[in-house]
Structures are given as structure tokens and as C-alpha cells.
Amino acid sequence: MVILNALFSWLVGAGYLAGNPLSLSRQRARRTSPRITRFLERDLWQEVKVYIDSLPRGTDRERERYWRARWLFTLLYLGGLRISEVSGNSMGRFFCRRDADGHERWWLEVLGKGDRERLVPASAEMMVELGRYRRERGLPVLPAPHEDTPLVMPLGRSMKPLTRAALHTIVKGIFAGAAGKLRLRGDEYVARAAQLERASAHWLRHSAGSHMADGDVDLRLIRDNLGHASLTTTSLYLHADDDQRHRETEEKHRIDW
């Protein structure tokens, strides 16, 4: 019916028909977009953080795995990044600018879906976690401009970016581990554990948006943080709107390790 309606409309437009006989048929009602349900409520998000903090750190490799997991979940949650954006961007995309009040603010320029660029506020928490992760890998605390170090690195000496599949495996492993610990508490936690096992990296992006909204961050700022609108070219000094977005994101959207 949709195809026929389009064909009749073309015939009307081309002058072959005086009218479209299907235009009088009942129009299909548009479905309202469903609410986002694939996100972690704050108590489940806390369980994930506690599990990450419980990871063993006895050997160099275990310590490296711990800091990588902690940094990856920081990026996905505080930055609201897609897993493809973690894989496809480098640490050289972090940069610092002074705002109108003279405060230095860090940003992450992300090349995202559809080759669109956006600026993600790199809060003080994010920069601390970045510094810790880099120091663990023997790198300077802050990245140099245009540095090609991947945002998240493989274990060992390799500096190649992890694939989306590899990052997905890391995230699913953390969720599975947290779910396993939750299930050990008793039958009343089985349903919550099952929810954690279903979670993926994109759930963290939805969680970031949901938690920012719960924290009264302006919806327009959340839109820009998550890249739901195109980014205009970045000038030498950030606009006042961007400064407000950075301040509100840093004040109201925290990870609190």
C-alpha cells in the first residue's frame, strides 16, 4: 500500500491523474518512539564500578588489565562514546583551551558516526583517569597534540588500536563478572544479574544520557555531548554555550570511583 500510494502520487504530480485514489484510505498512525530501556540504573552501575575496582592487581599484566578496564568504562560513561568511537579515535584528539573566565578546560574531539565531529567535555575526573592509564603504560600524563596513541590499547607493548569486537569482548566480560558476583548474593538478585549480563557498551552510552538527565543537565547539552546534532567548526576560543556545557557536565555527571 505504501508503494502503490507513492506511485499514484507520482502519477498525480506528472499530470497523468487528477487525484490519488489511495489518499482517502486510512493513514497509518505513527508509533511513538519507545523509551530507552537499555540502560543501567544507578545501583547496577555502582555494582559494575565495585566489580572493576575488585579486579586483581597482583601482577603487571593484571594491573594493566585493571587500569584498562577502568579507563574504558570511564570513556564510555563520562564521554558517552560509542564503541566505534573508542576504537576509531586517538589520544591526540584531547586538547585544552581557556574559557571566557580564564579557566583551562580539556575537550575530546571525536570523529563519530557518519564522519561527524563533536566536542566531548573532558572533565577533571576524565583527565585524572587518562593520566593514570597513561602513566601505567609508561606514557607522559598528558597526550601531545596529534598523538596517534589509541584511546584504549591492547595489553603488552602493542600500540595498535583495539577493534570494536575486542572492546565489546572486554565490556561484556566486565558485565558478566559483575553479574556473577551479584548472583552469589542470593535468589533475589538473579533478575538484576540477568539484566547486567544482557548489557553492552551501548548501554553505557544510554546510561550516560539517562543519568545526565536525572542530574538535571540541560537536554540540549546532553544532545551535544552524545552527538545527536552536528558540530560546527571549532574556533580558537569556545563559545559561551560550550563553556556552560562543560561546566554542567563536569558538575552534574560524575563517575566517582
UniProtKB/TrEMBL annotation:
| GO annotation, biological process | DNA integration; DNA recombination
Q: Which InterPro entries match?
A: DNA_brk_join_enz, Integrase-like_cat_sf, Integrase_catalytic, Tyrosine_recombinase_XerCD
Q: Which Pfam families match?
A: Phage_integrase
The principal location of this protein is cytoplasm
Source organism superkingdom: Bacteria
Q: Which GO CC terms are listed, alphabetically?
A: cytoplasm
State where the protein is found. Cytoplasm
Tyr recombinase domain span:
35-251
Task: Cite the GO molecular-function annotations of the record.
Answer: DNA binding
Instruction: Write the record's keywords in alphabetical order, separated by commas.
Output: DNA integration, DNA recombination
Q: What is this protein called?
A: Tyrosine recombinase XerD
What organism, scientifically named, is this protein from?
Answer: Paraburkholderia humisilvae
| The gene coding this protein | xerD_6
